[in-house]
């Protein structure tokens, strides 16, 4: 027997809707700015950012997909596009013939290094500067609390 889902109170609905709208506006604006500044898509940027933060600029394909919260097919299409443009390469995994590493190339490192300063400036202008240091600290704690809660929930 399934429980009837609980509705949201007006305050809960307002909080949820404003969070979603904020996320959509910020991500959309940052995506357009990344493309205008660097000719990279937001997807290129996030993949290269995660890879270049990793040891040796590489991650296992499935680990990268999970970290970014993408389905395997989306990650596969994105990697294929990035390989064609020389931003990443696929490298076989010696321990697991079915697995592969995605590795940032020198061109990929150059692309993210060129794009990152402007991206950080846009994040500062659109997000950081909107909050006082105390509000930013509270926002970070609340976001972390939600992330930890979501991690405990079944997928």
UniProtKB/TrEMBL annotation:
What organism is recorded for this protein?
Streptomonospora alba
Question: Cross-referenced SUPFAM superfamilies, in alphabetical order?
Answer: Winged helix' DNA-binding domain
Which named protein is this?
MarR family transcriptional regulator
HTH marR-type domain segment(s): 1-148
Tell me which stretches of the chain form a coiled coil.
none
- Extract the SMART domains matched here: HTH_MARR
Name the InterPro entries on file.
HTH_MarR-typ (IPR000835), MarR/SlyA-like (IPR039422), WH-like_DNA-bd_sf (IPR036388), WH_DNA-bd_sf (IPR036390)
In its UniProt record, a GO molecular function of this protein is: DNA-binding transcription factor activity
**A Gene Ontology BP annotation from the UniProt entry:** response to stress
